[in-house]
Write a structure and sequence with these properties.
This protein has 2 domains: about 120 residues, Nucleotidyltransferase, domain 5, CATH 3.30.420.40; about 80 residues, Nucleotidyltransferase, domain 5 (2-Layer Sandwich). Helix content is about 30%, strand content about 25%. It is built from 7 helices and 12 strands. The strands form 3 sheets. The protein has a 5-stranded mixed sheet, with helices on both faces.
Amino acid sequence: MTEKTMNGHNQPLIIGIDSATSGCSVAVMAGGQVLASAAKEMARGQAEELMPMVDSALRESGITPAELDLVAVTIGPGSFTGLRIGLAAARGFALSLSIPCIGASTFETAAAAVDKNTIGAGKLLIAIETRRDDIYAQFFDTDLTPLSVGAAMDDAQLATLVADNNVVVAGDGGLRAIEMLNNHGNTNTTWFDVELLSGAVHACTIAGLKYKSGEIPPPPQPLYLRLPEAKIPQPKNRT
């Protein structure tokens, strides 16, 4: 595996893209160090903003696209439109440079942002907003090992998942998840306020670890936990 030389050390140069939830962020990293980043909070408009943010982060870092080793991207769950825009940009960027593109779930990037000391002897619940009655949730152990698969859950399912554990809750749906749990009598919860615009940084970290271990999976696909609401119009029957 060939890696570019950065500051005298062989470190993969990574650009990360995250537009899966309520923000849009880009980061350029090497060896765990953030060289440059750009981030904006937005529910829509990622298609217009993302590539200028990529260009800005690259210029700030002093890195040219040809120097990059890897593209990292969040794959969801989250906004259908946002995550499709991010994935299309990341995969197209990687393809044009003939470098790998590695995905990380929104659950993984949010979990990576939580201080393990905060979790203590408890568990970690990552909750992602669905803007419906349910919530996207995944349960993690103290060492961030997944204890469940990510799924859309109503309040009863969420309470069953958490049971009587002491739980640190994070993610952009975290406060609503705590309310859902409280409604079912589970008050053993602690809120951890994850920086919503740090997704690209943590996607870089996760993808970088896979890259250095030699794990290069196929190009990432969107992680949908339910089908999109938009439907292709069907032709009308003509008689």
